[in-house]
Design brief:
Order of helices and strands: HHEHHHEHEEEHEHEHHH
Strand order of the largest sheet: 1-2-3-7-6
CATH architecture: 3-Layer(aba) Sandwich
Shape: globular
Largest sheet: 5 strands, parallel
CATH class: Alpha Beta
Oligomer: single chain
Distance between the termini: 49 Å
CATH superfamily: Thiamin diphosphate (ThDP)-binding fold, Pyr/PP domains
Strand content: 5-15%
Radius of gyration: 19 Å
Number of domains: 1
Number of strands: 7
CATH topology: Rossmann fold
Helix content: 40-55%
């Protein structure tokens, strides 16, 4: 576990609460899908919460992120409201994308999150454009590009990284290496053991981070954003993490062992931070239980809000369309 020193208890609890919100949101949504209350497919984020929270805690609403087909955690960590996220999954007009995006396209420009792009590697090229815009404006903004290990075999990953390096763009590339591209192990698609090694080919600084430790991710992100904002060019963080669920809700996870899953679950980022806070005497278990109860209340409110929200009108299908 990363060092607790350097962060006030209030901020540590905010990190804990945000990770817990993502976890409980995902758990609640899973059952709503099983009950048929929400339609479509589902790519969940349980287990990877430390990455989204550790990174986004450093960002303001004027910093922008791009996301993936697994965007719920990024959205909640970046500040998309729980109500708006839930309503989007219900395809309601009050959703963050007006009910037009659904699970794989959450986002809200008001908080600096481009609606997620479900194409693998699709956000990498967009992030390069964002970074170029920020540099030309001399705005001190940063772009953060989240992507999985599978995206590193897409041309967009290499083209974006190369362009960003040559133009010294203010971009933080965050690879969430959860070991599998859908059901294919990363070791079967790359001769290199680590994604971070690929950055060297483009002259980009890279660091491997324990993606199951929110404090490690938080510290690495804070350190990386300083030179990025100072105009020194992009940096890549490879966060070693693990999704506790399958690739999508129809995935029975037959390609990995239950022993492997148990090993990674023993490193649950939420439990690790909670246990560390209690062990350090900064909080007691009752305080953590109060946070859980508050998050449960927030989710109950979000579900009721979504259920009672209006459906989009047919006329709204012609809005927000660009040729």
């Amino acid at each position: 576990m990363g060092e607790l020193e350097g962060l006030e208890t209030e901020r540590l609890l905010a990190l804990y609460r945000c990770m817990l919100l993502i976890r409980m949101f995902e758990d609640r949504v899973y059952y709503l899908f099983l009950q048929g209350e929400i339609a479509g497919t589902l790519h969940q984020y349980q287990g990877q919460e430390a990455v989204a929270v550790g990174v986004c805690d450093h960002l303001s609403h004027t910093d922008w992120i791009t996301s993936t087909h697994r965007p719920h955690g990024h959205a909640l960590a970046k500040g998309v409201s729980t109500r708006a996220a839930m309503a989007e999954l219900y395809a309601k007009a009050t959703g963050c994308c007006g009910g037009k995006g659904g699970s794989m396209h959450l986002g809200d420009p008001a908080v600096g999150m481009l609606p997620a792009i479900a194409i693998v590697g699709g956000g990498n090229s967009i992030a390069a454009g964002m970074g170029l815009a920020f540099k030309l404006r001399k705005s001190q903004q940063a772009a953060v590009c989240f992507f999985g290990d599978g995206a590193t075999n897409e041309g967009a990953f290499h083209e974006s990284l190369n362009f960003a390096a040559v133009r010294r763009l203010p971009i933080l590339y965050v690879c969430e290496n959860n070991l599998y591209g859908a059901s294919t192990p990363y070791t079967m698609t790359s001769a290199l053991a680590d994604v971070a090694e690929r950055a060297a080919a483009y002259g980009v600084t890279a660091q491997i981070v324990d993606g199951m430790d929110v404090l490690a991710v938080h510290a690495a992100t804070g350190k990386a954003l300083e030179p990025i904002r100072a105009g020194e060019g992009p940096i890549l963080l490879e966060c070693k993490t693990y999704r506790f669920t399958g690739h999508s809700r129809s995935d029975a996870r037959g390609y990995r062992t239950r022993e492997e899953e148990a090993e990674w679950k023993s490193r649950d980022p939420i439990a690790r931070l909670g246990d560390a806070l209690v062990a350090a005497g900064q909080v007691d278990t009752a305080a953590l239980e109060r946070i859980t109860a508050a998050v449960e209340g927030e989710l109950e409110d979000a579900v009721e809000f979504a259920r009672n929200s209006p459906d989009p009108s047919p006329e709204q299908a012609l809005e927000d369309v660009y040729a």
